[in-house]
Each structure stands twice: as structure tokens, then as C-alpha cells.
Amino acid sequence: MQRNDVKKKKKKKKKKKKKKKKKKKKKKKKKKKKKKKKKKKKKEEEEEEEEEEEEEEEEEEEEEEEEEEEEEEEEEEEEEEEEEEEEEEEEGGV
What we know:
Layout (H helix, E strand, L loop, with lengths): L1 H92 L1
């Protein structure tokens, strides 16, 4: 009887140890998965942030180009007006 009891205890202890090991492994796997997910999320956020920055830069460049075009148009208009005034003066002088 005693021998049987010892065997049962050993078996129970072994089973408990195996269960504990399995639980630990599962926990470790879950932790690793969570870490991987967090890393992926962080990477996606960084990519998103980069995209937003790029879009902002593009918008700024477009605005600058538009301003330059407007300035050029204004300069052209001023030059045309000056030419017209000179022509009128020449015609009036003749």
C-alpha cells in the first residue's frame, strides 16, 4: 500500500510539474505575441506619422509654388502696365 501511495504521489507531482511547465510556456508565448503586436502597432504608428509629415511637406511646397506663381503674375502685370504707360507717353509726345 505504501509503495502504491508513493507511486501515486510521484505521478501526481510529475503531472503537476508538467501542467505548470505547460502553463508557463503558454504564458511566455502569450507575452511574446503581445510584445510582437505592440511592436507592430508602434511601427504602424511611426509609418502613419511619416506619411502625415510627408503630406504636410507636400502641401507646404504646393503653397509656396502657388505664392511664387502669383508673385510672377503680379510682376508681369506691372511690367505690362509700365510698357503701356511708356507707349502712351511716346504717342502723346509725338
